[in-house]
Amino acid sequence: MLAEAQPVLLLKPLMDQYLDYLMFEKGLSVNTLDSYRGDLNRFADFLDTGGIRSLCDADSAMILRHLICLRDSGMGPRSRARHLVTLRGFFKFMVQEKILALNPARRLDLPKSGLKLPDVLSIQDINQLLNMPNPKKPAGVRNTAMIELMYAAGLRVSELVTVKLQDVNLNGCCVRVFGKGAKERMVPFGQPARQKIDFYVTTARPTLLSPHTSPFLFVARAGKPMTRQGFWKILKQYAQAAGILKPITPHSLRHSFASHLLEGGADLRSIQIMLGHVDISTTQIYTHVARDHLKRMHEKYHPRRGTSPSS
Questions:
Q1: Lower CB count within 10 Å: N or C terminus of the chain?
Q2: Does the annotation count 21 as an active-site position?
Q3: What is the pTM (predicted TM-score) of this model?
Q4: 196 tagged catalytic
Q5: Mind listing the pLDDT tens digit for each residue in 73-97?
Q6: Is 251 a catalytic residue?
Q7: For this structure, is 302 an active site residue?
Q8: Model confidence pLDDT, tens digit, residues 179-207
Q9: Cα–Cα distance, 148 to 106 (Å, whole number)
């Protein structure tokens, strides 16, 4: 596959070359690049442990053995599928750069993971969460505004914590968001979020900032921007206090946004645009959630919903 056998030690520079390509040519985010880097490092360790001294020896059988080792180590099918996608992309790049003649990962099938439906909160759950922050404390006012905006606009947590003050148009009820790959989109939000953000900006934010300044909408102590981990911790505390037993992450609010829109009659294409999904197949998972909801409604309200016939 290679014109000359390359030592496995040269895999590291090739990995860096591929990651640079993903950053500068594809515009992938830092978090996504970290995931790719972790996958590639794990593959490099596998080759090194197996005494593989040349990249050309990493054929399809070798990659399959690597995936089997990942399975035996306890890695789930979804994670292994993502790992294989990383290797496919890496070897495809090697072929494009004429370092390799063939992509040994191209014909390997993705591990079967089944359909995992996202965790979705009910509207009652959302209202309970919004009732948890203390409205008399600046941090509570901020937290309410964050939950409102995340649910109202379906933001990723990384998008939420990096929203800048100038990105929010309260008059137009929309927010400018920079998603994966630094792709920009405008997302609308409703009056409840507008009111909560306006109240936060005019009352709590100056208190949290003083005496500092910050371009970010949501700030923590000493004017520092809120972190993803900080918001996740806050959300978990509110969920426990509200007695919500189902597992909740910041992404649950994004899932709930999409599912509630679909249940309310929104079309899938509009939801795709608001979520910032490049491929509509990513958005289509919410149709399964909506289908389950409709089935429950049918079973509950339809006059011929499967009740046992009277004798």
A1: C
A2: no
A3: 0.62
A4: no
A5: 888 888 888 888 899 899 999 988 8
A6: yes
A7: no
A8: 877 788 999 999 999 999 999 999 999 99
A9: 43
